[in-house]
Design brief:
Elements (H helix, E strand, L loop, with lengths): L4 E9 L4 E4 L5 E2 L2 E3 L16 E3 L1 H6 L4 E9 L3
Length: about 80
């Protein structure tokens, strides 16, 4: 295991707009980001997550949610 900075984000598509949730925008309708976690605790597993409230997104009429994960290691 080695140090890794993982950046997770999601984009939400609506009929008439786009939104996103990432370490730079921690909370939006139906999404809550864990925050930027730059090191793996005890060098085991990985970190960063986005909690999705499907019912809230459905009420807001979200059409699609896509996820992107970038992983950086060793500078």
């Amino acid at each position: 295991a080695q140090h890794m900075d993982m950046d997770l984000s999601c984009h939400i598509a609506y009929a008439d707009k786009m939104d996103y949730c990432s370490y730079g925008n921690l909370v939006t309708t139906g999404c809550k980001h864990s925050g930027d976690i730059r090191s793996i605790p005890n060098n085991v597993g990985t970190a960063e997550y986005i909690e999705i409230n499907v019912n809230e997104m459905r009420k807001a009429q979200a059409k699609y949610v896509t996820f992107t994960c970038n992983a950086y290691s060793n500078g």
